[in-house]
Amino acid sequence: MADIAFLLLIFFLVTTTIETDAGLDRMLPPIEPPDTDVVIKQKNIFTVSINKSGQLLVEEELMNLENLRDAAIAFLDNGGAPAGSPEYCNYCQGKRDASSSDNPQKAIISLKNDRETAYKTYITVQNELVGAYNDLRNRESRRLYNRDFTDMESEYLNPETPSSVRDELKEKVQRIQELFPQKLSEAETSKI
Amino acid sequence: MSKFAKKKDGDLPAVSTASLPDIVFMLLFFFMTVTTMKDSSLFVENVLPNADQIKKLEKKDRVIYIYAGKPTQEYAKTFGEEPKIQLNDKFANVSEVGSYVLAERATKPQELQNVLTTALKVDKNASMGIVMDIKQELRKVNALKVNYTTYEGNAFNNIQ
User: Fold this and answer.
1) What is each CA distance from B51 to A123, A127, B31, B69, in whole angstroms?
2) Percent of chain B with pLDDT over 90
3) Nearest by CB: A22 against B37, B144, B152
4) Where are the beta strands (DSSP E) in chain B?
5) In chain A, N or C terminus with fewer CB closer than 10 Å?
6) d(CA B10, CA B26)
7) Do A94 and A79 touch, CB atoms closer than 8 A?
8) Do the chains contact at B135 and A28, CB–CB below 8 Å?
9) A21/A23 Cα distance (integer angstroms)
10) What stretches of chain A show up as alpha helix (H) in DSSP?
């Protein structure tokens, strides 16, 4: 009995691996350009460029990777539209600087990289930008539902969650996603 | 007195092995549940970068894998040091990525064909050029949902 069990055990040990499948989910832009040209104000775009040696140029200034998340949060959470206007952002806690983004729905982060950029640098930058969105979403989620957004989302995406719980979560997750939609554009690579 | 006289010094009773199958079966079931079958052996170096804002890839049947990285030592002689793409069990050119994704998509059940994710397992020392090429190919075949597969860890460890 033990021999057979050992044989099976060794077979499974050899042929299987422990899964490490987790990562950053992203959507690529569709290849056909939209029919109508969208005009976006310069102040609503936050440009991040990575050069081939891994240095960051954020809004035309050199920046350290460590500061990227805070800069992105400051930009997204700015809420620069004046009070009373239809674009006014009543949940933003930023500086309300009129020369930065109007509201989170309008704010776009544009990421550019060089062909020679190391993949690990790119992933770190992506991670920080997603982190900025997650931090803001967590803040709003805690205010509205007393719970972290990332926590709710992972429960919502888990196939083992019962569907009754999932329907309830779906509404909440979508509400938070609307407050801070992830608008991260990746233009085609250019020689910077 | 005779009761005590029977005992010999230093003679330990043998450990019972009756529970050995139970223990081994327990181990077996543990490995069967936490592991999955290997589907392809790697020809490329594949040390993934770290990230901490990650989401788990649920349901393996909805994932298409693309590997990229420098060929491992034994293949480096024939294929060189430049990062290459690996699809299933062979090296491939950038132009083959599109047809591979379409072929993989066709093998999945109809209801899953629109919810497939492409997992990019790229070595952390590869350059972005190869990733950009793969992404461009994926856009051409309208496979827009990608997942940059990473290890869980502090992202700043990547750049040290």
Assistant:
1) 7, 6, 27, 18
2) 0
3) B152
4) 35-37, 50-51, 55-56, 63-69, 84-87, 90-92, 117-122, 145-152
5) N
6) 33
7) yes
8) yes
9) 7
10) 2-15, 65-76, 119-145, 149-157, 163-179
Q: Which residues of A touch B48 (CB under 8 A)?
A: 20, 23
pLDDT in tens, chain A (192 residues): 778 888 888 888 887 776 657 888 888 888 777 667 777 778 888 888 888 888 888 888 888 888 888 888 888 888 777 777 777 887 888 778 777 888 888 888 888 888 888 888 888 888 888 888 889 889 888 888 888 888 888 888 877 788 888 888 888 888 888 888 888 877 655 544
- What is each CA distance from B20 to A2, A183, B12, B13, B31, in whole angstroms? 6, 57, 19, 17, 17
**Closest approach of chain B CAs to the CA of A82, in angstroms?**
33
ipTM of model over 0.85: no
pLDDT digits (tens, 9 = 90+) for B104-122: 889 888 888 888 888 888 8
- Name residue B57's amino acid: L
> Which chain A residue's Cα is nearest to B48?
A120
Q: Is B80 left (phi over 0), alpha (psi -120 to 50) or beta?
A: left
Nearest CB partner across the interface for B126, out of A16, A27, A119:
A119
Residue A188's pLDDT is what? 59
End-to-end alpha-carbon separation of chain B, Å?
76
At residue A101, what are phi and psi to the nearest 5 degrees? -60, 150
Structure tokens at B156: 């700043």
Task: Count CA atoms closer than 13 A to A38's CA, side-chain side.
Answer: 8
Residues of A in contact with B25 (CB under 8 A): 5
Q: CA of B60: which chain A residue's CA is closest?
A: A21
Integer Cα distance of B148 and B119 in angstroms: 6
Rounded to 5 degrees, φ, ψ at B79 are -110, -5
